[in-house]
Every structure is written in structure tokens, then in C-alpha cells.
Amino acid sequence: MTKIAVSILTIQGRLIDIIxxxxxxxxxxxxxxxxxxxxxxxxxxxxxxxxxxSKYTTKKLDVHLMVDNPIKYIEDYATLDVExxxxxxxxxxxxxxxxxxxxxxxxRCGLSIKPKTSIHKIVPYLxxxxxxxxxxxxxxxxxxxxxxxxxxxxxxxxxxxxKHGYNTVIEVDGGINDETAKLCIEAGADxxxxxxxxxxxxxxxxxxxxLKNN
Length: 214
Ligand code: DX5
Ligand code: ZN
Hints:
Helix content is 34%, strand content 21%. With 214 residues, the protein is an alpha/beta fold. The chain has one domain (3-212): TIM Barrel (Alpha-Beta Barrel).
């Protein structure tokens, strides 16, 4: 069964009230987009803000670090109830040591790639990581249109993962709605991130059902 990680990036206003409402749905995770204003132009939440929000949910957090220097964020986020901490392939750092650091904290590790990065670049890391976060938009903001080239990237990655017998989970992030969710699930995605689609209507559960029951 496909899992849904709800991105809170595009929530405006009463964040805690919306978190409490999402808590009542069967969404699997809260997807937390952390942006440093360097790896991507925008900034998003501070750790203090996320720590406060985390008190209102029993769902695990799926932390997506769109930051140049993830090391300094890992120890903080590892203190919360986190399922995955995901870093970006494109940060020009020693990825293996960062992956090890996440795992040493007892947290599952994800590696994300932007739409223009070849999926073959992450093959050497597949045995070490728990999740691949395939960006289906350019990282930086919510509400963008799904890039259709993602579907073939999911299929190719799924084939590589199956061929090697890895357990790596494929998560897709950006522009997910009922139609693009169907394409991603058919191609082999395990987790879908959705922000604007789920939040576009007051009835969050119906939207989540529409993503899951494709
Ligand atoms: C984009 C973020 C996404 C985004 C998803 O950089 O990583 O998680 O918030 O939002 P939607 O579902 O609106 O594309
Ligand atoms: Zn994200």
C-alpha cells in the first residue's frame, strides 16, 4: 500500500490547527521541508518551530533537508520522532560520512536527487540508504507542476533496486495530485509527498484517499 507524507510547507496561517486536523487522518508521515536559503533560494522552518509542531502529532516525521550543510541539522532532528532524514546528492560533500552520521543516530537515511540529476549517480549509495527521494519538481517551493519525465525515472530506479535485491523505498516529491499519483504508483513509487493537493480542500481525508486508492 502506498504511503502518504503530507508536506506542511504551503500551509499558511494556523499551522498548529491544521496539524491537529491532519493528525486525525490516516496520512502516514508529516513531510518536513527544511530550506537554508543557500541550497535553494528560500528559507522555511527553524528547528524550534518544528520541535513545537511535533508535540501535536504522533505521526513520524519525514525530514527533507534542502540544505548545503546537513551535518549541523542531524543531531537536532534525531531528537524528534523521525522516520527518515533525507539529504541531497547535489551538495558537494562527503555523502558517505553524512549517511553514516544519520544511521549512527538510529534514523533511516534518504538520498534525494533533483530532476536533472541522473539516477545512475545514486546507484553506488543504494546499498547504504533506506530511501530515494525523487524530486518531481525543482526543489524550493510547493505548488509546482509535476515533471512527467519522473515516471520513467521511477521505473528505471525500481528496476535497479529489484535487480540488486535492495529494500530501498522510492518516494516522489512535488506536484502530486490524483492523476500524477496514479502514474507514480503504477511506476513503482512507495511513498508520495503531497502538499498543495491534500491541503486544497478542507476534507483532507478524502484527498488522501484519492491519492491512495488510485
Ligand atoms: C519542494 C518540496 C515539496 C513540496 C511539495 O521543494 O520539497 O515537499 O512542498 O508540495 P506540492 O505537493 O505542493 O508540490
Ligand atoms: Zn520535500
